[in-house]
């Protein structure tokens, strides 16, 4: 799911309530090993919004399901509103409040001297490889593309400590179909990512690359 916008001030949208309802629906269906929240979980990346969103997520997600969270552009709004324009601090807050720098996730650090702020990590769930790439692909450095290629290559070799499984489709949850909303942003950068995806044929048989806003749960129509 994506774009839950927990904490949104628009009175016509109950982001928190719809997030909770969606998670409870997933839990009622059962059989989930992972829940992906694919951008804009919060409306402005504030501490209070993160605390609320994570409380809802942890209380309502299917038992035993691993949470995999990617930041969207709204997670960086706090950089301007609270953090003096420091997007690195906004990315650090994302990791601290979501715990995506722990629980077996492998974080690729950003070099402040040469790279823009961003969140990059990968993780494994029962043989499936998930790669999380920051929402702003126009800001990706050559070093991050090299990292993505390496993680893609390692994933295809099954470097997870366990066997590979099949069934995941890129930019889609294997366990539930959702409407896919592709954002036409950063076309050149997206092209570079697609080249990596297609290098060895069907990425879907090995692992999935998650780009924020690829999945939309309908909790909010806000960008």
Automatic annotation (TrEMBL):
One of its GO terms (molecular function) is hydrolase activity. Residues 151-223 are annotated as: Disordered. It comes from the Bacteria. InterPro entries: Calcineurin-like_PHP, Metallo-depent_PP-like. Coiled coil: none annotated. Signal peptide: none annotated. Pfam families: Metallophos. Residues 1-108 form the Calcineurin-like phosphoesterase domain. This is Metallophosphoesterase.
């Amino acid at each position: 799911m994506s774009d839950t916008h927990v904490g949104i001030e628009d009175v016509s949208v109950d982001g928190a309530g719809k997030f909770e309802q969606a998670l409870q629906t997933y839990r009622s269906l059962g059989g989930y090993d992972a829940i992906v929240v694919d951008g804009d979980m919060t409306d402005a990346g504030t501490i209070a919004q993160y605390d609320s969103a994570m409380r809802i997520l942890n209380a309502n997600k299917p038992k035993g399901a691993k949470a995999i969270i990617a930041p969207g552009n709204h997670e960086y709004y706090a950089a301007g509103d609270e953090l003096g324009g420091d997007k690195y601090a906004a990315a650090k807050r994302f990791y601290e409040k979501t715990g995506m720098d722990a629980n077996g996730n492998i974080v690729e650090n950003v070099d402040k001297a040469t790279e823009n702020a961003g969140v990059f990590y990968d993780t494994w769930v029962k043989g499936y490889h998930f790669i999380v790439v920051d929402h702003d692909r126009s800001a990706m450095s050559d070093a991050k593309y090299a990292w993505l290629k390496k993680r893609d290559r390692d994933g295809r070799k099954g470097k997870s400590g366990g066997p590979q499984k099949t069934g995941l489709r890129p930019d889609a949850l294997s366990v539930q179909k959702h409407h896919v909303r592709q954002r036409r942003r950063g076309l050149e950068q997206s092209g570079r990512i697609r080249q990596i995806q297609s290098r060895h044929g069907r990425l879907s048989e090995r692992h999935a690359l998650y780009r924020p806003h690829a999945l939309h749960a309908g909790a909010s129509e806000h960008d």
